[in-house]
Specification:
2 helices; ten-stranded antiparallel beta sheet; 302 residues; 16 strands
Length: 302
């Protein structure tokens, strides 16, 4: 049995289908002072926000904005791909890039679920001969700053998933879920320089044999942090449509988010979700992303 949170998988889904989702996690209009951006160390129960509670650092958010409307537009039905314009504000992008400036980015690796955090899980490093993934990246936890925490909360609203499932939880939060760990990965910061790319691949994979919960990526949410480079599109070469044999290409635009599902509603892997980061012809590309992980409700088999 999988604990899978499916959103926006409606029977009426079609090309250009649009749906509004609202959130109280409104945009930051300016980056708060450094002394207010210390890592979050609160216990899980202290991080719960009711609908009636003020949002974190509300004085630095857009004035007079109590809710934010997020419009999902369907780009593809097979695979399920959506774009959300203006998901991040300029201030939020600035903050993420500032974090990236203080982090030692390393050559990107490829791997299955948990490869960013499980030291015993083997990674496949990019080699000169294959050049599967030639970007540089690093991982940043949600708790790194209150702004990142707000972005995760907004993402939870977009995905129709309780934000507590995107972090470590207390004993009284979803006690039926067999693990207190987050059902998503840490935020990945990725930089592509000229000629760098990530060739066609799937985000779904297979968890380590030591993972008793059999985690499997079922959706990815990525955020573009800049624009106006040449190349660098996110492409889906196997998308199914009745108009063209060409691949679907999503052009990076600062602040835009792209949501796509790697699994079908029945839990099977969606081969059509294969995608790529096209080579950078001129300029550079910055993005951040995280994947949602479905977990088994059975800790072991008898």
């Amino acid at each position: 049995i999988l604990v899978v949170f499916w959103a926006h998988l409606v029977s009426s889904l079609h090309f250009s289908f649009a749906q509004w989702v609202t959130t109280k996690e409104t945009h930051f209009a300016e980056v708060p002072p450094a002394d207010l951006l210390e890592p979050i160390s609160l216990q899980p129960s202290a991080r719960i926000l009711k609908d009636s509670d003020d949002r974190i650092l509300s004085e630095y958010r857009v004035k007079g904005q109590s809710t934010l409307n997020m419009t999902l537009r369907a780009l593809s039905c097979a695979p399920r791909v959506f774009e959300i314009e203006n998901f991040l504000s300029e201030a939020e992008i600035e903050h993420i890039l500032e974090l990236a400036g203080g982090i030692n980015l390393k050559a990107s690796t490829t791997g299955d679920v948990g490869s960013n955090s499980n030291k015993n899980n083997e990674k496949v490093k990019p080699e000169e001969g294959t050049k599967t993934r030639t970007s540089f990246n690093s991982w940043v936890p949600r708790e790194r700053s209150p702004v990142l925490d707000a972005i995760y909360r907004r993402s939870g609203d977009l995905l129709r998933i309780d934000e507590s499932l995107l972090r470590y939880r207390g004993d009284d939060e979803y006690p039926d879920v067999p693990t207190k760990k987050a059902t998503c990965e840490s935020l990945q910061l990725v930089h592509y320089g000229q000629t760098q790319e990530y060739t066609s691949h799937h985000d779904f994979g297979y968890s380590s044999i030591d993972d008793q919960y059999n985690g499997a990526r079922f959706a990815t949410l990525l955020f573009y942090l800049n624009e106006e480079m040449k190349g660098g599109q996110t492409s889906f070469p196997r998308w199914v449509n009745a108009e063209s044999f060409h691949e679907l290409q999503v052009v990076p635009k600062a602040g835009k988010a792209v949501l796509f599902y790697s699994q079908l509603p029945d839990g099977n892997m969606d081969d059509f979700s294969q995608h790529a980061a096209k080579p950078i012809v001129d300029g550079e590309k910055w993005l951040s992303k995280f994947s949602m992980v479905a977990i088994s409700t059975r800790a072991s088999c008898v």
